[in-house]
Amino acid sequence: MSAIKPTARVILHACGALLALALPQTSRAAEPAANTIQPRQFAAVAHNSEDNQFLLFGGTYGTTRFSDTWLLGSSGWQLQHPSTHPEERVSAALAFDSIRDEYVLFGGRVKKSAAATCNAGAVPTGLATELFCKDTWVYKKNNWTRMSPATMPPRRELHAMAFDAASGQVVMFGGVGYTSSAPLGDTWVWNGSNWKQIVTAHKPPARFLHSMAYDPVNQKVVMFGGDGGVKILNDTWLWNGSDWLPAPKQITPPDFYTAAGMAYSSTLRKMVLFSGHTWNGARSGTPSYNSWTWDGNQWKKLPLTSFELITNFSKLTASQASKAILASGTPSMLWLSR
To answer: Where would one find the signal peptide in this protein (predicted)?
Structure first.
């Protein structure tokens, strides 16, 4: 299949295993005022490059948890009003399917209640008031539809998904399961109606809070870094539609990042990795504002002048919104093309 217009899944997660497992318990959120979006963490975001829009769902801010849906385009943030939607949650994953013209959401974590409907299982280890989800939702034509696949991946949060335009499937890797805080290392693909687990010949280390996006030039999904449980990772893997292949040895690899944003830049005509948290040997994370390009073989560090950084996307102007190409939620930030 020839390459489709570039797509990317962009991560909005707070970083670090301890923070991920110590998220403050929250109450149900009131719907925000129209077109006034609050900054947030642990939201699900995906980029629709065909319409140059970002879709954002859910997340948390302070003691508030959200189930709202927003579109970011040239006019700025626009609150959507779907008749149905997933229940409020954090740490779900979202990807835009450019062939079927729809967004796909899977999993995440919800507050424990008798009304929880996301195929929630047992109470996860260390999170007595939370439940993990394994439901699949599709957002299309301004509404969410809950899907009924015959096969569902296990419950998880902090996983990553990207649409593989070469194979026409969404690919998902890793995350954290509800039975322990140890990372997952399984691979699943979504064909528009059902999930299928792929047992690959090559197996990347298990991880969560990693970065994934589709490279339309080289027609592969790129996966980078994340938290491997035992250590923070800075390795690169390439998905070819049926297997993960390790990238060539890097001359100058990026830092050890968790929750870095990754997307294809049509301006640079390369994949871009940016922000996230860097980590030292004591597992103390600090925000990073560096960015890197991927040419299909090697990473190269970019000068800071390559992009304009907006540190609070809730205050984005319409003129700035028209230049938004990458997003991160640690804290909420947008990087704009110059």
So the answer is: 1-29
| Element spanning 80, H or E | none
| Separation between Cα atoms, residue 245 and residue 226, nearest integer Å | 17
Is residue 2 in some structural domain?
Answer: no
What are the pLDDT digits (tens) for 106-147?
999 999 887 888 987 778 878 888 999 999 999 999 999 999
The residues, any chain, with a CB within 8 Å of residue 148's CB and separated by 6 or more, are none
186: domain CATH number? 2.120.10.80
Task: Kindly report the three-state secondary structure assignment for every residue of 24-52.
Answer: CCCEECCCCCCCCCCCCECEEEEEECCCC
Exposure b/e, 298-321, CB count within 10 A at least 16 = b: bbeebeeebbeebeebeebeeeeb
Domain span at residue 109 reads: 8-337
Average pLDDT over residues 27-32: 43
Residue 230 lies in a domain: yes
Question: What's the structural domain count of the chain?
Answer: 1
Q: Is the pLDDT of residue 13 over 90?
A: no
Is position 3 within any domain? no
281: left (phi > 0), else alpha (psi -120 to 50), else beta? alpha
Please report the pLDDT score of residue 284 as a whole number: 58
Task: Please choose, from the candidates 265, 242, 173, 181, the residue with its C-alpha nearest in 3D space to the C-alpha of residue 211.
Answer: 173
Assigned domain for 277 exists: yes
Rounded distance, CA 57 to CA 63, Å?
17
Of residues 65, 62, 45, 63, the one with CA closest to residue 54: 45
